C-alpha cells in the first residue's frame, strides 16, 4: 500500500477520527513523543540534548520526548517558546520535571530537537526565532525536526523561515506535502516516518516501486505495446525517447521522421510531408504516441502536433509540443481523451497559473487538460484529473542533464503502451527513470540511462 500524503487538515481529521474510534489526544501525543525520544536516543550517544518546545502540540510532543529521554538518563534541557495551549500540551509541559529556559537564553548543545512548530504553523517564523533556531541547528552535531521543520508550510512546501542544515525530520503519522515538495523537502534532511496509530488514507500518495509481471505466454511484439515517437527539428531528442521506450518494455517502437541508429530494433519511418504522419498513425495496433522531444517550434512542428492531437491513440505531449501549446494547452487537449503531458517547471509555468503550491497547481492543471500531468523536478508530482496525485520520494540530482526529460517521456509512452493507464504508467515511468539513474551511478549521460531500464524493471518482477 503506497504511503499516503496528508495535508495538515487531513492529518487533524485523521487524528479526530482516531480519537472518535477510542484513543485520546493525550495518547497520540504520548506515542508521538516516544517516537521522537526513540529516534533522538538512537543518535544521542550520551551527548547533551536541547529540546525546543513551542506553544502548540508540536511543543507538546517535545515535552513528552524530553521527559522520556530524561527518565532514560539523558542530559536534557527544554527551551520553551510561548505558553502551551491545548490541554495535552499543558499536561505534557506540567509533566516535564527538568530544567526549562527561555528560547532566547538557549545555549547550543550537540543534540537538538526542534519541536517549536509543526503542522499548525500559519505564518512565517518571527525573525528572532528563526535566527535563534538557525544558530542552534548550526551548532548541533545532530538535529531532529518533530513532524516538520519549524518554519515550513505543511501543505505547500513553502519555506517560512525554516533552518538549513537539519540532520533529520521525523514525520508523525503520515507524510505531508512539506516532506516531499521543495523547498521544504530539501530542508528536512533524512526523512523518517513514525506510525502513531492514526489510520491515514487519502487521494495523494508517495510513488512506490512498481509491481510488474512478465509478458503473458502468448505475448507478441504488438501486444506488448507499439509506440510511435514523432521526430522533428532535433532528431537526437526523439532518438533518446525511442531508445528509452524500447528499453522500458515496449514491444515495438517506430521512430517517425528520423533514423534511430541503435538499437536496430527501433523501426525508422521517414516523414516527408507532415501528412505522412497521419498515415503512420492510422494503425489500430498503436499503444501510445509521443510527440515533443526535439520537435521544434516551426510550422512543420505545429502541423505534426495537430495530427498527433487529432489521432485517436493515447498521447504523451512533451518538450517543444508543450511550448507550442502554451496557454492553449487546456483548450487544445481537454477535448482529447487518454492524454498525458510531462512539463518541467518552466514549461508548466508557461501553460498554467501557479495555484497554492506544486501539488495543488499540478492537480488543477490535470483537471484543466482532463489528463495526467507529470510536473517534473526534484519533487516530481504526477496528478490525475480525478484528484489523485503521486509524488516521488526517490531522487537523483544527476538527472539534471540534457536528454533526461526525453528519456522519461519515452519510458512513459512505453508503459502506457503496455496497457497501464496514464496515472499508473506515469508513476512507473518516474520510478524507473530515477532507479535507472541510481543504477547508472554518478555523472551519467542521458544516453546511458536506457541501458539500466531493464535492470530497473527486473527489480519489479
Ligand atoms: N493533534 C494531535 O492530537 C496531535 C498532533 N501532533 C503534533 O501537533 C502538531 C500540530 O500542533 P498544533 O498545535 O496544531 O500547532 P503547532 O504546534 O504546529 O503550532 C503551534 C501554534 O503556534 C501558533 N503559531 C503558528 N504559526 C506561528 C508563528 N509563525 N509564530 C508563532 N506562533 C505561531 C499557532 O497558534 C499554532 O497553533 C503536529 O505537527 C504534531 O507535531 C502529535 O504528533 C500527535 C497528536
Ligand atoms: K518542528
From TrEMBL:
Question: Where AMP is bound, by residue?
Answer: 376-380, 405
Q: Which residues bind (6S)-NADPHX?
A: 57-61, 118-124, 147, 237, 294, 344, 406
Q: Does the keyword Nucleotide-binding apply?
A: yes
Any Pfam family the entry gives: Carb_kinase
InterPro entries of this UniProt entry?
Carbohydrate_kinase_pred_CS, CARKD, Nnr, Ribokinase-like, YjeF_N_dom, YjeF_N_dom_sf
The reaction(s) annotated as catalysed by this protein in its Swiss-Prot or TrEMBL entry are:
(6S)-NADHX + ADP = AMP + phosphate + NADH + H(+); (6S)-NADPHX + ADP = AMP + phosphate + NADPH + H(+); (6R)-NADPHX = (6S)-NADPHX; (6R)-NADHX = (6S)-NADHX
One GO MF term attached to the UniProt entry: ATP binding
> How are cofactors bound according to the entry's free-text note?
Binds 1 potassium ion per subunit.
Subunit comment for this entry? Homotetramer.
Protein purpose: Bifunctional enzyme that catalyzes the epimerization of the S- and R-forms of NAD(P)HX and the dehydration of the S-form of NAD(P)HX at the expense of ADP, which is converted to AMP. This allows the repair of both epimers of NAD(P)HX, a damaged form of NAD(P)H that is a result of enzymatic or heat-dependent hydration. Catalyzes the epimerization of the S- and R-forms of NAD(P)HX, a damaged form of NAD(P)H that is a result of enzymatic or heat-dependent hydration. This is a prerequisite for the S-specific NAD(P)H-hydrate dehydratase to allow the repair of both epimers of NAD(P)HX.
Tell me the HAMAP family matching this sequence: NADHX_dehydratase (MF_01965), NADHX_epimerase (MF_01966)
Protein name in UniProt: Bifunctional NAD(P)H-hydrate repair enzyme
- The record lists the organism as Sphingomonas jinjuensis
